[in-house]
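Lecture notes, unit on binding sites. The following record was shown on slide 14. It pairs a sequence with 6-O-phosphono-beta-D-glucopyranose.
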Amino acid sequence: MPLPDHFLWGGAVAANQVEGAWREDGRGPAVSDVAAYKPHLSPTEYAAFHTWTRESVEKAIADTDDSRYPKRRGIDFYHRYPEDLALFAEMGFRTLRVSIPWTRLFPTGEETEPLRAGIDHYRAMFREMRRLGIEPLVTLSHYDPPLHLALKNNCWVERSTIELFERFARVCFSEFGEYVKLWLTFNEIDGILRHPFTSGGIIPDTVEGSLDQACYTALHHQFVAGARVTALLRELVPDARMGCMLTMLLTYPNTCRPEDVAATQLKERLLYLCTDVQAGGAYPRLALRALERQGVTVPFQDGDEELLAAHTADFISFSYYNSSTESVSPDAERTPGNTILGVKNPYLDSTEWGWQIDPVGLRIALISLYDRYGLPLFIVENGLGMRDELTADGKVHDPYRIEYFRAHFAQMIQAVDEGVDLMGYTSWAPIDLISSSTSQMSKRYGFIYVDQDDEGNGSLNRYRKDSFDWYRKVIATNGTDL
Ligand code: BG6
């Protein structure tokens, strides 16, 4: 049987999409709190991303109509986590990926002392997870930099943010290290290049010079911060492990036309840049040259290179939802995917949001990453966003979701059989939550249905979908009965 006995089956959520309670216990505003739900946008418009300006951010934060900003309410996980953890435990979860908002401990990011209420909250939550036999897997930064830092100085563009983040991480490790042994630095760290505001607190119209340069500067600061907090974790919690996290944007050449292959290769070079730095300890030469040709300089300071080389990740985690293709043809038909707009693959089906479903791609991703780095891997996001219907008898029949996971698990198991060292799998998301890109509730991912619509109406009651029982069986049989 290929999957090891200690394989960590579970699910993944992010605080900004589930917690709500955005002003409770002293929490400061985060960039996620200004993301409005916009009805009637097409999937391509969603994929084009919000173009933030200082004016639009200030207007949104001054808007007291919380109903327009779904991430302010989430699914009330902040209060309902005991009930939700119990449901996850019922499915047999061995792990749960969560994140800790920086602003729950340091409301603006700049305070010198953390909020006790925030510390108490997460200590209680992690204790409860341990009691239920659920290993916490915790992301330090998942798309929620402090809004104050974004407005003050474009957050991660500023080098001083590194120290502030280190202060936050120090509190996390000293207060929660007793319970949490698996950590991730930045969710989809490469995301800062595609959505600078959400990921890095960068407001494009306030950036001096080119936005491209600002994004790579911020990314470099995140790399340095990641290495510094990895060193800190090793000092404060020696039995813990730190992972990096990549958006696995698997891209195939659209045809065997050599130009398509070359364009895909360039894309891939930049895709792997982040993991090369975080897991390999250095910027790869060809990627640096590609950046130079783009007019981008990496703002190295004395000691950065040594730091990056010394404190690399213990394991590589990644999200995988869809693949796409690359073509140099101007007429190529495009379709959205996770944070990208790629070229359509004629061999694949897509969801209503245009994301192309590709289970074999998961195996390809696992093998490519393992072959390149030889480090343990962890699939920390994978799942299917669909509209679900709650029937009058409180059921949700979601055979499409079961089919999606079944096909992906079969490929995952095959990759392990081929020799990949895989620590675990956490589905995105085990419970319906607010979509990151669209702020919709109706783009549902969970095994658990949450009674809430896009406008925030509903009881917030939880219901087990058909996939809930199916996933419980998969975990109980360690993937032998799909
Ligand atoms: C990943 C993010 O990119 O994709 C998650 O890390 C996000 O936060 C997930 O929710 C799915 O994307 P979406 O836009 O459908 O919520």
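Take-home: The two ends are 13 Å apart (CA to CA).
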